[in-house]
Write a structure and sequence with these properties.
The chain is α/β, with parallel strands linked by helices and 288 residues long. Helices cover 45% and strands 13% of the residues. The protein is built from twelve helices and seven strands. The chain has a seven-stranded mixed β-sheet, with helices on both faces. Helix 1 crosses helix 9, helix 4 packs antiparallel against helix 11 and helix 5 crosses helix 7. The chain is globular. The termini are far apart.
């Protein structure tokens, strides 16, 4: 009896994972026909943390156009140029239309560092220049002018940055600062850009790989998302993307084959048991 139970547990867990992946792909809210930017801090962030999101949102049937904006080349070890090429290759493997959909910024105020917090005003300047050029024009806009942007959705890390990396956390604060500044003096207008952030979890859930998928779904964020889409006809307050076995392997391949310069021993553990290689739950941020 005990042997049957031991054999049944992994089968049950795997079935729960694959069922959750199917439900998230076919029944839960997603984004369609959107211009989307994934904002990351370093080359490999897109594969290590956001591969389920990219693989879901770049699927041809969604009609989305996804781009990646990376605010450093990850040059801490002098490999910046190599890592830029690796990011472009990884992006293609994760569904981007072309290498031109990847932009890497290099700025001395945004160093690849485990101890440096990037200034929010610098991130705001970059985002404004890239996505709201009209607000930077010499022509002064008035409160009656509708705010416009070249993207519909911005996706980045949350306030804890998944790994507490200060560069990751800086992106959250910089993105919020940009949108708050963008909408300043525009009462009555809806912000044209929705901001979604990747939810940080505790250390136990971070390392249970695909088996966190049913846990995340049961915790209920997907219900609120579905209710918002059905009842209020607005962007869902949360999104859940779960990779099936094939997309999990695609995410792993993007890291292993494209980011060869970064494949140290501990990253093999991450791509093997890290839940962010399989599960991404995103929260829509309210900007005031």
């Amino acid at each position: 009896m005990e042997l049957y139970l031991v054999l049944a547990i992994p089968i049950i867990l795997a079935t729960a994972w694959l069922y959750t992946a199917q439900v998230t792909r076919t029944s839960l809210p997603s984004l369609r026909n959107k211009r989307i930017c994934l904002l990351i801090a370093h080359p490999d962030d897109e594969a290590m943390f956001f591969s389920p999101t990219l693989l879901a949102l770049t699927a041809p049937e969604t009609g989305n156009h996804v781009k990646v904006l990376c605010l450093s080349s990850g040059n801490a070890d002098g490999l910046g140029e190599i890592r830029k090429q690796e990011l472009a290759a990884s992006g293609i493997m994760l569904g981007l239309r072309s290498a031109s959909d990847v932009l890497v910024i290099e700025d001395p105020k945004l160093p690849d560092s485990m101890t440096t917090t990037w200034p929010a005003d610098k991130i705001t300047q970059i985002l404004s220049s890239a996505f709201s050029p009209a607000s930077n024009s010499s022509k002064k806009s008035s409160s009656s002018d509708e705010p416009t942007s070249t993207i519909d959705t911005l996706i980045t890390f949350d306030a804890r940055g998944i790994s507490s990396h200060p560069n990751h956390i800086s992106l959250y604060h910089g993105a919020r600062h940009w949108l708050s500044s963008f909408m300043a003096g525009k009462p009555g207008w809806k912000c044209p850009v929705e901001l979604y952030t990747l939810t940080s979890t505790n250390i136990l859930r971070k390392y249970i790989s695909a088996f966190d998928a049913p846990v995340t779904m049961i915790m209920g964020g997907w219900r609120a998302a579905g209710m918002a889409q059905r009842k209020w006809k607005e962007e869902p307050p949360s999104l859940l993307f779960v990779s099936d076995f094939g997309n999990w392997r695609r995410g792993q391949s993007a890291m292993v084959k494209a980011h060869k310069s970064q494949m140290r021993w501990f990253r093999w553990g991450w791509i093997g048991v890290g839940r962010y290689m399989v599960v991404n739950d995103l929260k829509r941020e309210m900007i005031t």
